[in-house]
Amino acid sequence: MYVKVLVETRLKSNDMTFTYHVPNTIKEELIGKRVLVPFANRMVQGFVLDYAPFSDDYEIKDIIDVIDDEKVLNDELLKLGKYMSEKYLCPLITCYQAMLPKALKAKIKGNHRLRKLTYVRLNNAAIITNINEKQLEIVNLLKEHKEVLKSKITAKSSLKKLIDNGFVTEFLKAQYKEVEAGFDHKDVVLTKEQKMASEFIEQRFGKEKVILLYGVTGSGKTEVYIEVVKNVIKNGESAIILVPEISLTPQITARFKAVFEEKVAILHSSLSDGERNSEYQRIIKGEVNVVIGARSAIFAPLKNIGIIIIDEEHSESYKQENNPRYNTLDIAVERSKKHKCPVVLGSATPTIESFARATKGYYDYLELNKRVNKKPLPKVSIVDMKTEIKKGNKLFSSILMEKINERLGKKEQVMLLLNRRGYSSYLTCQNCGFTIKCPNCDITLTYHKTSGMLRCHYCGYAENKIEVCPCCHETAIRQMGIGTEKIEEEVLKAFKGVRVLRMDADTTSKKGMHHKIINEFNSENYDVLVGTQMIAKGLNFPNVTLVGVINADQQLNIPNFRSSEKTFSLIDQVVGRAGRKDKEGEAVIQTFNPEHYSIICAKNHDYRVFFKREMFIRKKLNYPPYCFITLIKISSRDFNFGMNESKKTGVFLKRNLSNTTTILGPSMANILKINNCYNFQIILKYKKDDKLYKTLNDLLKIYEGNGRIKVEFDFNPINL
Ligand code: ADP
Ligand code: ZN
Fold first, then answer.
1. pTM
2. Strands of 544-549's sheet, edge to edge?
3. Ligand 2 center–CA 24 separation, angstroms
């Protein structure tokens, strides 16, 4: 018998399956499993995709070993990978690798078996007699807990006696990550609005329909999801719930764990590889019927999916930024076709594209307009920082200072948002104007005071802080701009005895830190939480009554057609963290653009007005949803070569695409140097272009196997 095996090769733009012979010693079904094969003088792992016809080619080699006992890629996932590879024009192997936890990817080398731990339990068949007090203690412990990790029992010799006498049995079990179900344990009675929402969704069970659930912050979307998932399970089906980031998962997973107990599997990036794999194995074995996780959980190999929920659907984390550059929603829709189930998109700030589709009737539309606590949405004040600067208030306006003091006095909590980590944004020489940049990337380094280092936020490069300018040798280096570290320091200075926590990529880089910070703040051991956009998303702290946005303009200053949308969304979300329980909340937004519509609409919590304004502008400038955008990324270490080939590509595209497609670039303006690689861009804007896929495929073929240049595509990119 012969099979086709997909392996990772150096020819990145190509999808190579190779035929191998299956020796007679291997009898099992191989499709969807990983095998070990000889390839170019080494051993590599690959996925078996299909059977191959008989071949008498003497060069065909034997499969050496079968790695998996059970399929890692079922038929649905095998098909889905092909769909992705064609839709996003990326190598098939990258699609399969993206679906699987690290332990199950087809690696070039490495170990792959799942780590198991020894547990003990009582042997029910044995009648226990003649034991001493210490042994009785163990027996009682096992009666109470059923299964106990062997290493947890300290009386080793007593345990050994029990095992030797056959009273206690040892067994191996994969270690599962226990998620603490800390809070939100209670049963809730749904409000009328929530009840209607869940019924609306349930009416669409069994149909492949996308439903946009627009629910203001604090309207209780999570409880709607829980109600719907309960009914999905009653029907004998399963559910996938996606959440944007790990910062969100502790609270929402705790809530789901409390309701569905051991029927939930959790997949997110803060699990160790082993933990992730054990959760995954439980899904494969059919031990769970609810999966909660970040983006890649959309690939969870559940059977009979009854619903897919994408919470905070506007989040950028649903788009993968390297190959395969997939949008989670596309994958959800593809899976919903197979399973005949609805997809729910929940958000208080839907993307413009999603809302536009709902207005056009492509999506069903559902609203939750009221906060569960029956309180109004937070009252928002906009502060013009131009006048504050004149008064000498650089970081905190007088209003914000006053309000923080007031809330601290009432023992309530405050959240402060600044979407920039580090201490200062960049360092510049006051004498010659030299700015300190990363040697690998053409980007300014950020000063981090805690570590005393200058860091590149792109590639991670770090160097010691300097005082003397490397260019003019004057001691005139000044720090410009601010980051969360600085805000933390200033809050400590400005408010006596205040307890401050900081949540950003720096304080949460260690495993478990997200969880810890959230728990500490939730337990009210701290008064103020300073953070980047991480604090804006989905978190629920009952005692937070004031939110301050230190600088609302950061995103507005970035040239990107989504800047206004991102600004509105971030402000509306972070403001929505205030007043979620018994007390009313309020917010202060500091800005240099107090008249900007995204800031005014966020103040008024008016999504619809924002949507209208934004659609008007998108139409005028021809941006999505009025057209599609595809980004062509060309990168090379050699600037001149890269530039030349990009120009040639531009000509090639003009010749081959429809004349209604707009081709922008390559321009000198948006060349980015990252990690010593020059990145050139060509942007395509089109409503419909039948020649698109053929042309882009031909382009890939031109550069296939060319080691000096890499061509990749990003369909519907987030950042331009
Ligand atoms: P959203 O995601 O819409 O911003 P959440 O789902 O986080 O809102 O809910 C906000 C808060 O209201 C949570 O503390 C939640 O436990 C609580 N809550 C939701 N629904 C109910 C209900 N029907 N009765 C009581 N409390 C509720
Ligand atoms: Zn760098």
1. 0.86
2. 379-384, 586-591, 544-549, 413-417, 528-531, 500-503
3. 52
